[in-house]
Amino acid sequence: MTNSAISITVKLFAAYQEAYGIPELVLQFPNGTPVSAVRDRLITEHPELAKWRDITRFGVNLIFVEPDTALKDGDEVVLIPPVSGG
């Protein structure tokens, strides 16, 4: 596996979208980065998101995945924090 950079689209919902104020991000990561690293990077940029670290679910290309799922170039990532009803 090469160490080339990949480009992914991150769809933001709920607390993540509130933190960034936009509906999606395009980010670069090394090839093979686990999807959990996307969440960790967003928490680094917006520490107020840390409370969602352990309860965020991950989707890649509209499929729920485990946190250690490796990303590929062009993937669409969704971070899904718990959403309260209302």
Automatic annotation (TrEMBL):
**Keywords in alphabetical order:** Nucleotide-binding
Stored Pfam families: ThiS
Query: Per the record's keyword annotation, is Lyase included, yes or no?
Result: no
Q: Does the record carry NAD as a key word?
A: no
Which InterPro entries is this protein grouped with? Beta-grasp_dom_sf, MOCS2A, Mopterin_synth/thiamin_S_b, ThiS/MoaD-like
At the top level, the lineage of the source is Bacteria
Q: State the family named in the UniProt similarity comment for this chain.
A: Belongs to the MoaD family.
User: What is the protein named?
Assistant: Molybdopterin synthase sulfur carrier subunit
What are the leading ranks of the lineage? Bacteria, Bacillati, Cyanobacteriota, Cyanophyceae, Nostocales
